[in-house]
Design a protein that fits this description.
Elements lengths: L34 E12 L2 E12 L3 E5 L6 H8 L7 E6 L2 E3 L3 H6 L1 E4 L11 H11 L4 H14 L15 H12 L6 E5 L7 H16 L3 E5 L3 H7 L2 E6 L2 E6 L1 H8 L3 E6 L3 H8 L5 E5 L2 E6 L2 H8 L6 E5 L3 H9 L6
Bound molecules: adenosine-5'-triphosphate and magnesium ion.
């Protein structure tokens, strides 16, 4: 039996704009715009609680822009405002050349979305989920069926076309959500933690797929807690804390600016005692749990101080984006 697509159509988050809207082929917003997303002094409050506070940034067409920040920093709220699903308290948002939320439906015609939490129809098959979603864009059944094989191949789900989503692994579901986001051949992808909870194989596959989309000229706005993901994929990043931008730049620029020297991690001793021992040779020192992080312009001098002390494990490495994140947002748990 074929999928019951018609019963899933309302309410559609991707309704076309007005009865005089578009022909069957999906019309998209301004495909020539060199700016994919522009936020100008955007604020969002719930009651008297400010969750996004005067945020401005611009995402150029074709770039991968990352939003980083601790839990509750406002990343998902920002993605929802860009989609027109949450209305900002004040400020201006332009997406693919059109104002949002005023013309959000038109903007969404050119956007593919991977929400933070999968919202697939669990009882439907993989193919049925794609059919239902394509119908939100007013694509015909034939149009959708014509592109399903390429979407399944993209997501490496060819053998699962007729499997119910409830029977798929978490990685497969995430890949299906990504495939689903591509059904309208969007110019812009908004991915809210696309690989959280996935095993390394699934994660690497998705990274490879996202890179191939960037190579095809797509624009990506990505939120993530996985610093390796941000470092590998993002051209530029914006680090948020409590709804405010605390840093913006290219990953390597941020690493150079914020850290700019080797990092020595020391485990196994009393980190506070060790800290006193090496502090005069470090640019900066942090203790997190049982680990001492020592940012050292001259790592040899630090190592000499620690030489001969029993039970220590010492790791010297290049600085990375996780150091930047923790430096900017602190090593304490944020909730
Ligand atoms: N509808 C809502 N009503 C009230 N508060 C909300 C609502 N949506 C979000 N918030 C609050 O806004 C803040 C930002 O939430 P948001 O989900 O945007 O954070 P996030 O950066 O995506 O976090 P995470 O990394 O955990 O996904 C949180 O404190 C959250 O509780
Ligand atoms: Mg979130």
């Amino acid at each position: 039996m074929g999928p019951q697509v018609s019963c899933r159509l309302e309410p559609s988050p991707f309704e076309r704009e007005g009865p005089t809207g578009f022909s069957v082929k999906i019309s998209t917003p301004d495909s020539m715009s060199t700016v994919a997303i522009d936020l100008a002094d955007v604020k969002k409050s719930y009651g008297d609680r400010s969750v996004v506070d005067g945020l401005s940034f611009t995402v150029a067409a074709g770039e991968c822009f990352g939003l980083l920040g601790p839990n509750g920093a406002g990343k998902s709220t920002i993605t929802r405002m860009i989609l027109g699903m949450t209305t900002p308290s004040t400020g201006e948002i332009t997406v693919l050349g059109v104002p949002v939320p005023a013309r959000a439906r038109l903007a969404r015609m050119g956007i593919g979305v991977v929400p933070q939490f999968d919202n697939l129809d669990l009882e439907f098959t993989v193919r049925e989920n794609l059919l239902v979603f394509g119908r939100y864009f007013r694509m015909s059944k034939n149009e959708i069926e014509a592109i399903i094989p390429s979407l399944l191949e993209f997501a490496r789900l060819e053998s699962k076309a007729d499997a119910r989503v409830v029977d798929l692994s978490g990685g497969m579901r995430r890949r299906l959500t990504l495939a689903r986001a591509l059904i309208n051949d969007p110019q812009l992808l908004i991915l809210d933690e696309p690989t959280t909870g996935l095993d390394p194989h699934a994660r690497h596959l998705i990274w490879e797929r996202l890179r191939s989309l960037l190579a095809r000229g797509k624009t990506i706005l990505l939120t993530t807690h996985i610093m390796e993901e941000a470092e590998r994929l993002c051209d530029r990043l914006c680090v948020l804390e409590e709804g405010r931008k605390i840093a913006e730049g290219r990953p390597q620029e941020l690493i150079d600016e914020q850290i700019g020297c080797q990092v020595i991690e020391v485990y196994g001793g009393n980190p506070h005692e060790l800290s006193a021992l090496v502090s005069s040779y470090a640019r900066h020192i942090e203790v997190s749990g049982e680990t001492l992080f020592c940012y050292a312009p001259d790592p040899e001098q630090v190592r000499v101080q620690l030489d001969g002390r029993a039970g220590l494990r010492i790791l010297q490495r290049a600085p990375n984006l996780e150091d930047v994140f923790l430096r900017l947002t602190g090593r304490e748990l944020k909730d």
